[in-house]
Specification:
- The structure holds 3 protein chains of 3 kinds.
- Chain A has 22 helices and 2 strands.
- By secondary structure, chain A is mainly α.
- Chain B has 33 helices and 2 strands.
- The longest helix of chain B is centred in the first third of the chain and has 32 residues.
- Classes of the chains: A mainly alpha, B mainly alpha, C mainly alpha.
- Chains in contact: A-B, A-C, B-C.
């Protein structure tokens, strides 16, 4: 079944290559790109199913055995992330059919979108540190070009900030990889899990800090998040939605991966730093949102704040906390992407993202109002929507270990999140239409389809959280005990040496 | 499933009907109220059918697994306490649903209104029936949310929106504190099941976290029940349509806090902390509400303050916690529900039919609205605590329950006197008089709007004469549930000439004085306090304003528009975090002794160093980029030294092409000096970070190279390259075979870079697209707002 | 630039450099070279041509748009990976077909070679896309 492990990367990559060749044939590109996302989500779902039935799956590219060749590893976490990428791919691809203008399509929107998907999935699946760097580069360049596609001034300004800060991340990441390779002589992450504990702990801690920064930039943690609010409000909504959903989560994923698999030799130090960062990320993000008066900028700052909760789960480093982190990621991707999509529809109605120029939508578009409320209230953590369970689990995990300050931070930030979401609601939906603004007719139904789908998913996760929590629990269990991961990649003998000092 | 009863189904059915309400309203039209009232009426009947079992001391318990992983279940428990509350919710709900049909007749938002109202009712039933802390919290928050939408019903009015948000933030904020309290409670007790927690109260009361639990849970209950200093949201919530005020903000939702305190009192009660927290909050609420009521002349706001008085009374009685006080609390609760809901509905009818809620603007309405007036009088007499009504029975009992606490008793008497005044203002003044004064021509309310209040008021009258009707069957089991054990008591209309009766007389006398001196006192207070916001409200406003200011400040500081500022923070943080770790935890060991290099190695070193310095000091871009190219060439030479020809060739070619391409770009840019873009201190900070960063990486590299290198990877590649991969050039075999997937990724990067460069270069600078659909408007907004993040 | 010497020299150089770049790519599996280096050399050759004759002439000489080269190159590289899947092996597993040319000489056709050709095309295409886009403005 090894092809299945690689499929979530190879498929979009192959489609991208095909679409590059089909440059200029708009209809063909639209059909192939959209249809391929359906295939992508199907394959990803099969992968997750296989993993949950039979355990971790590994593929060795070129049939070169680990640790010499490059491994792709699908454990629960990776498979979950790949599935959610697939869901996002379908949702944004459908939305893009009406959202992306022919100009952008002519400039290569479709292949770029596929490359982005390949990069994201590559980062989730790879079991090799340098290969992860490659996928980070792939998704960085794809996202940069998608971000600036259209060349408006604010896009370029945002794009420059985005790419400059992210290049710092790449540089630090690459430097850290070099150091890790120098210390251990390997790049395979399972192999590293065996060898790093044998290296000098202090040196490994320092290297761990470099990874924390490199991935922290990607994840938009405090105080590294500047690129995000500077850029996410500039591209078309279909692009902004998949960025908002997926890009930071690649960073979060990478943090979870290395701080459960590789850097667990001094949890009291490394994970305590993470916990502090998590707290500051939550607070600064939500305050940033409170200062905004633009639909998309509020949403952008909230990404940061919500990332804090996920990192909080990682930092607490208990099975329940990691369960919460994984669940939180899934919930947040769906909800946040959906809010960006809704913002796009609102924009088509009222012509603006500025809250002062919005209004009257509750009266005019009650259905859209409901579609906003589901993700917005889920984000705010109102029960029984998905965000409630996500917050509940991480907070419960924190309470479990007596981390009361972070519990307090998490709850207060939750209240401020409610404030932000109601601010949008009251301004855009409840308040009367401002003078001089006229509402356009209802936009295309195709824009609604993904919004409805994601809203239903949010409701499903809320009301039937059981199965979702169970999958997240399986992921958390694997993360807390990497033996299964190592065994899957390197075999039984290697797995037996884990945690053993020479 | 013990008992096999399906209390849960009743709750879920209520949610189902709520969701279907918009459709039902469209079908039933003007008769919607009557049709939808079948739901609460049915639930009332269903609950009553369990009355005898509950009266016999039985609790109906059921549990449906929900999120088993977290010990969260949809557990339902119907005992004496929850039965009383549930009956109030469903019973008064019936009257309200019918009333709303008349009150909001023809309103185009009626379908949404009923959806929200019935969803609220379902959630409220869930709150009082849940036997699991988390599912209770879920329903609790749902009541806050539905309340938010109902308060903001007239959403195009700014006051409504502000009031809705205020109510939401206060109750949701308390709710989150309560959640924290629940989590601790769950951890301490080992379960979220309420009945299990209550079965071992000592484990909780004796735990070191007890005080934290009490304060956090208390915060949730006190905000929800609008206790001082959180009381202010309730009068403001009167922005809601009257049926909502009558139902949520008087009869049911605001009693959720009371319910929670009563429910948990077996486990949390009976301690000094409990006593002081609740009695002080309750007494403060009564007194604050009593004095603030003197400022009001809007009938709904007057009633809101009277509700606050009642809520304060209830919380205070729970705080006292003696069997007498608890019994009084239960009876008072029911008495209040039976008179306050009709009074609200009457005030709504008057507003609806006579066009005003200003009690000074209305006179003589009794002549045209006789049924409404009679209802108002009956309910009013009960509210004023006069015999022979149920309110009298309740108040007597409350007085008796407080005999041991004279100060609290005094507070209650004072507040009750204000109640008399409020009753006069709402139930007498607008109706009495021969001449009719009203903004619009008044007439009697329709059947749908007088039937419900009349029935409830009549209930108060019947129970006044025959309180035993509900004594043993409802009141005693409810009190037993709160007390944790059975304390039988009897309800009488006539107690004989007791101290309580004397105090009632005193109360009425005080009330009459207030009525007599009301107008001058009221006018004097109003003129003095105009424009002055009372403490806690001001606190809320200041908090919100402060939050926004602080948020704006923080964002200005952190998220400036300047990329250099961002880079400084990011790089500074990176160097600091890593450097501090290296210094204090790194325990880095390295060996500075090394072999003396070859002469030509030093030449390259000097070359690269000079190129780097030249790039730093360059005034023109062209010099800078050429210098960087030279540095790159130097690195390529290093590759040559270490026998890596492929890398060297690649590096040479890449550097060359980069210089060519960048030069092509530069000759198209306007001329400019690099210097003018930065000043001294900026350069100093950047320089410090750069030097520190460079030093850090040098140290780390030395530390790593001091370790023995494991070369198994290279060994494998060397061994396998030709036999297994048919290639002698290991670098190339790595690129196209061993790690071909890396290369595939990298050429994808190139392909995208090509696309990006094409898109950027072909379309940038000056040639703006005028794509109306997705572009122009946000551009305009952006410019107006000054740009930036 | 209207230098006759440059033009004549460029004509010659172009042919030599392009052949050399191909040679570099083909021999890359055993000796220094490979698709990346070959591609860079080829791109440099065309760049030289463009400097001498203008980018329009270079484009005309190329016959195919550089963006299409990128697409085909990527497609070739991905396709080389799929060859292994047909054999039931993992993606990108090397496939070899050694053709005897007689006289001891043999031609090694392989999926890594196809992959390297893909790399070559992408590199050429990318650099030329950038150059042409810059020149065009």
């Amino acid at each position: 079944m090894s092809w299945l492990v690689g499929a979530p990367v190879i498929l979009p990559l192959a489609v991208a290559a095909l679409l590059f060749v089909l440059q200029g044939r708009r209809e063909a590109q639209r059909v192939i790109s959209t249809a391929s996302t359906a295939l992508l989500v199907t394959l990803s779902a099969i992968l997750l199913y296989r993993v949950s039935e039979g355990g971790i799956l590994v593929a060795q590219f070129g049939e070169w055995r680990a640790p010499f060749g490059i491994s792709f590893v699908a454990d629960h976490l990776s498979a979950i992330m790949v599935v959610i990428t697939g869901v996002m791919a379908v949702a944004t691809a459908v939305y893009a059919l009406r959202d992306i203008d022919p100009d952008r399509e002519a400039l290569g929107y479709h292949p770029l979108f596929q490359v982005l998907l390949a990069g994201i999935n590559g980062a989730f699946l790879t079991g090799d540190l340098f290969n992860m760097y490659v996928w980070f580069e792939v998704l960085l360049i794809a996202s940069f070009v998608l971000l600036t596609l259209g060349n408006r001034r604010e896009q370029l300004e945002g794009g420059i900030k985005y790419v400059a800060v992210n290049l710092v991340s790449s540089l630090v990441f690459l430097g850290a990889i070099g150091l890790v390779y120098g210390v251990t002589g390997t790049l395979n992450m399972a192999d590293l899990a065996i060898r790093l504990p044998q290296a000098p702990g202090g040196l490994v801690s320092v290297i761990a800090m470099l990874f924390m920064v490199a991935f922290g930039i990607k994840a938009a943690l405090f105080p590294l998040f500047f690129w995000l609010p500077a850029s996410y409000h500039t591209p078309p909504q279909a692009i902004a939605a998949i960025f908002a959903g997926m890009l930071t989560k690649v960073g979060v994923y990478a943090l979870i991966r290395v701080f459960t698999l590789l850097f667990v030799h001094d949890v009291a130090y490394t994970h305590t730093i993470l916990l502090w960062i998590a707290g500051f990320t939550m607070v600064t993000g939500v305050l940033g949102a409170a200062a905004q008066n633009d639909f998309r900028k509020i949403l952008s700052f909230h990404i940061i704040s919500q990332i804090g909760y996920m990192i909080m789960g990682l930092a607490l480093y208990t099975p329940l906390a990691l369960l919460g982190a994984v669940f939180y990621i899934v919930h947040h991707i769906i909800v946040k992407a959906n809010l960006f999509l809704v913002a796009g529809i609102v924009r088509r109605y009222a012509g603006s993202f500025d809250l002062d120029r919005l209004g009257g939508l509750y009266r005019r578009a009650p259905f859209l109002s409901v579609l906003f409320l589901v993700p917005a209230f889920s984000l705010a953590g109102f029960p029984p929507l998905s965000g409630f369970w996500a917050k509940l689990v991480v907070v419960l995990a924190a309470a479990d270990v007596g981390a009361w300050p972070i519990v307090a931070v998490a709850l207060v930030v939750g209240l401020l999140t409610i404030y932000s979401m109601t601010k949008i609601w009251q301004a855009a939906f409840w308040s009367p239409l401002p003078d001089g603004v006229e509402l356009a007719p209802r936009p295309s139904g195709l824009l609604y389809a993904p919004v409805i789908g994601l809203a239903l998913l949010t409701l499903a996760i809320g009301f039937w959280s059981g199965p979702f929590l169970a999958v997240a629990e399986a992921a958390a269990t694997e993360l807390m005990d990497p033996t299964a991961y190592v065994r899957a990649v390197l075999g039984d003998a290697a797995a037996a040496t884990i945690g053993r000092t020479p | 499933m013990p008992g096999g009863d399906r209390v849960l189904i009743a709750v879920l059915l209520a949610f189902g009907v709520a969701l279907a309400a918009p459709v039902i309203v469209r079908v039933a039209g003007d008769r919607s109220g009557w049709v939808l009232a079948l739901l609460p009426a049915g639930i009332t009947a269903y609950l009553l059918s369990h009355g005898s079992r509950v009266a016999a001391g039985e609790s109906i318990v059921e549990r449906v697994a929900w999120v088993s992983a977290l010990d969260i279940h949809l557990s339902m428990r119907l005992d004496g306490l929850s039965l009383v509350f549930a009956l109030m919710i469903a019973g008064i709900g019936t009257a309200i649903v019918i009333y709303a049909g008349g009150y909001l007749r023809g309103d185009r938002q009626l379908p949404r209104f009923y959806l929200l109202l019935l969803a609220f009712m379902a959630a409220m039933l869930g709150v009082v029936l849940s036997d699991n802390l988390i599912s209770l919290f879920v329903f609790w928050e749902l009541t806050s949310i539905t309340s938010y939408f109902l308060v903001g019903y007239k959403h195009e009015d700014e006051t409504s929106r502000k009031s809705a948000l205020q109510a939401l933030l206060v109750t949701a904020g308390g709710g989150l504190a309560m959640l924290a309290g629940f989590l601790i409670l769950g951890l301490v007790g080992g379960t979220f099941e309420i009945s299990e927690l209550l079965s071992d109260p000592e484990a909780i009361r004796g735990h070191e976290a007890y005080l934290a639990i009490l304060l956090l849970v208390g915060l949730g209950a006190l905000t929800k029940s609008a206790q001082w200093p959180f009381h202010f949201w309730l009068p403001n919530a009167m922005a809601a349509p009257t049926p909502v005020s009558a139902y949520l903000h008087s009869a049911t939702m605001v009693k959720a806090g009371v319910y929670l305190l009563a429910r948990l009192s077996p486990a949390l009660g009976g301690t000094p902390a409990w006593f002081w927290l609740l009695t002080l909050a309750g007494a403060a609420t009564m007194l604050a509400a009593g004095s603030l009521a003197l400022l009001q002349r809007d009938s709904k706001r007057l009633l809101a303050y009277s509700t606050l008085i009642a809520l304060g009374t209830l919380v205070m009685l729970i705080g006292v916690g003696t069997p007498g006080a608890i019994s009084a609390m239960i009876v008072f609760l029911v008495g209040h529900a039976l008179y306050k809901a009709p009074l609200f509905m009457v005030a709504g009818s008057v507003d609806h039919e006579a066009g005003s809620r200003d009690v000074t603007a209305l006179r003589g309405l009794g002549r045209v609205m006789p049924i409404t007036w009679i209802t108002a009088l009956v309910a009013g007499l009960s509210a004023g605590g006069l015999p022979p009504l149920f309110g009298f029975v309740a108040k007597e009992l409350a007085y008796e329950g407080l005999f041991e606490n004279p100060l609290l008793l005094g507070a209650l008497i004072a507040a009750s006197a204000v109640m008399v005044l409020i009753v006069y203002l709402v139930a007498w003044r607008p109706f009495a008089g021969r001449e009719i004064h009203a903004p619009s021509a008044p007439h009697e309310a329709p059947l749908s709007m007088w039937l419900g209040p009349a029935l409830l008021a009549a209930g108060g009258a019947v129970l006044g004469f025959a309180p035993w009707l509900i004594g043993d069957s409802l009141m005693v089991p409810a009190a037993a549930a709160v007390l944790g054990e059975l304390h039988p008591f009897r309800l009488y209309l006539w107690h004989g000439f007791t101290l309580a009766l004397g105090l009632s007389a005193v109360t009425v006398a005080l009330g009459v004085v207030l009525v007599w001196r009301w107008r001058p006192v009221h006018d004097a207070l109003r003129s003095r306090t105009l424009g002055w916001t009372f403490g806690p409200v001001g606190g809320y406003d200041a908090l919100m304003a402060g939050l926004v200011r602080f948020a704006a400040w923080q964002t200005r500081v952190l998220q400036s528009d300047d990329l250099r500022h961002h880079m400084t923070i990011i790089l500074g943080f990176t160097v600091a975090l890593t450097g501090l770790t290296a210094t204090f935890r790194g325990e880095l060991a390295f060996d500075l002794r090394h072999e003396a290099g070859y002469f030509y190695e030093y030449i390259v070193l000097v070359l690269v160093g000079a190129a780097a310095i030249s790039a730093l000091r360059a005034h023109s871009r062209l010099v800078a980029i050429t210098s960087l190219g030279v540095a790159g060439f130097g690195i390529a030479i290093v590759f040559v030294f270490f026998a890596a020809p492929d890398l060297a060739i690649t590096q040479f070619l890449v550097e060359t092409l980069i210089v060519i391409i960048v030069a092509l770009v530069l000759i198209r840019l306007p001329r400019g000096s690099l210097r003018e873009t930065s000043n001294g201190s900026v350069r100093a900070i950047a320089g410090t970070i750069a030097v520190a960063g460079g030093a850090l990486f040098t140290v780390l590299t030395l530390a790593v190279t001091a370790l023995p290198f494991d070369a198994s990877l290279t060994t494998f590649f060397e061994a396998e390259s030709y036999p297994a991969a048919q290639g002698r050039n290991i670098v190339n075999v790595i690129l196209v075979d061993f790690r071909a997937i890396d290369t595939l990724g990298e050429i994808t990067v190139l392909a995208v870079a090509a696309s990006g460069a094409y898109a950027l270069l072909r379309r940038s600078f000056g040639r703006r697209r005028d794509d109306v659909d997705t572009e122009d408007r946000s551009d305009r907004v952006h410019v107006e707002r000054g740009g930036g993040a | 630039m209207n230098s006759l010497i440059l033009r004549s020299a460029t004509q010659l150089l172009l042919t030599i450099l392009l052949l050399f770049s191909f040679f570099l790519m083909l021999r890359g599996h055993d000796l220094p070279g490979g698709g990346f280096i070959g591609g860079l050399v080829a791109a440099a050759a065309v760049a030289l041509y463009a400097i001498a004759f203008g980018y329009r002439a270079a484009q005309a000489m190329l016959r195919i748009s550089p963006r299409a080269l990128v697409g085909w190159g990527l497609l070739a590289a991905v396709a080389s990976g799929f060859l292994a899947l047909l054999q039931g092996q993992a993606f990108l597993t090397g496939q070899w077909w050694i053709v005897e040319l007689g006289g001891g000489a043999e031609l090694k056709l392989s999926s890594p070679l196809l992959f390297d050709i893909g790399v070559y095309l992408v590199v050429v295409g990318t650099i030329l896309t950038m150059l042409f886009a810059l020149e065009e403005r």
